[in-house]
Amino acid sequence: MGLRGAVSHVWNGLRGSYDDPFWWRERACEFLVGPIHANLYPGRGDAVRVVDEDWDTLVVLDACRADLFAERADLRAYDEYRTVESLGSTTREWVRRNFAGGTFGDVVYVTANPYVSREAGDAFHRLYEPWIDAFDGDLRTVPPEAVVEAARRAHEEHPDKRVVVHFMQPHHPFVGERDLRFSGWRIEGEGHGEPTETHGRPYTPWDALWMGAVDRDDLWLAYGDNLTLALDAVSDLLSEIDGRVVVTSDHGNMLGERTFPLPIHVYGHPKGVRSRELVEVPWAVVDAGPRRTVRAGDVRSGSESERSDLEERLADLGYV
Q1: What is the pLDDT of residue 37?
Q2: Model confidence band, residue 3 (pLDDT cutoffs 50, 70, 90)
Q3: Where are the domains of the chain?
Q4: DSSP code string of the chain
């Protein structure tokens, strides 16, 4: 985007959202915190490019903070555990910096997150998209069990490929058992989020925390319950596959922590921000039997989705 395009983008946003506090909060991250962090962390330092690492299966838990993982996962179940720095603070950034523009004929990708299809759908030997055919309209997300089923098929149909398995959890909507109620959102029992719209976009749980409509401890518990659902599904998958498995995340979330050096309270996962809560992610390794003999293959053209379907699913998941 050139200077004229950037000015037009800001002006159009200002005309439509000048009285929207969410818009102002996001612009502060985009135009103040993001550029400062881009200069503070040129080249993103020691951030991990996942395709360069050693694994047969890479399990991605979307939006999983490292400290949440350490609290909820049984670290004794892994052969190795450490934290690493992610290349992105959003899924879109992470996918772009790890895969977009590349050709990975030795990789099959199973994704519950539509951003993989949008940003790098043509980068892999095969793309499995449970976000299309296993999306639960009541839960407004892809249940982890559906991702496991797609991962089983990927492993069976492509025994000579590396497999990425990208769960949507613990990213909201929260679908665990814990009740979480606040203005503009309702999550209870089986888990059903019904967003209220402001300026054409939904509140998220992080917005509600910023508004004071939900308690931080309650939100942390619901966030953790969502992770536990995913971890249970990962355990099921691990019992059925061999090879070296790495469990990690694309990014974390901020729950009001201040950024450095500009001390702004940040919520959720805005792009371009390199705060520890966003870019420190788990790297848990399981050596589960014989390694795969991986062979390169062709790269097939990408997503089977329609553009309108993709944008609708992104909106259901709280992306704007």
Answers
A1: 72
A2: low
A3: 19-315
A4: --HHHHHHHHHHHHHHHTT-HHHHHHHHIIIIIHHHHHHHSGGGTT---GGGS--SEEEEETT--HHHHHHHS-GGGSSEEEEEE-S-SSHHHHHHHHTTT--EEEEEEEESSHHHHHHHTTSEEEEE-HHHHS-BTTTTB--HHHHHHHHHHHHHH-TTSEEEEEE-TTSSSP-SSS-EEETTEEE-TT----PPEETTEE--HHHHHHHTSS-HHHHHHHHHHHHHHHHHHHHHHHTT--EEEEEE-S---EEEEEPSSS--EEEE--TT---HHHHEEEEEEEEESSPP--------------HHHHHHHHHHTT--
- Tell me the CATH number of domain 19-315, given options 2.30.30, 3.40.720, 3.40.50, 1.10.3470: 3.40.720
pLDDT in the model for residue 197: 46
pLDDT averaged over every residue in the chain: 84
Residue 129 to residue 131: CA distance in whole angstroms: 5
pLDDT, one tens digit per residue, over 105-156 is 999 999 999 999 999 999 999 999 999 999 998 888 999 999 999 999 999 9
204 vs 62 pLDDT, higher one: 62
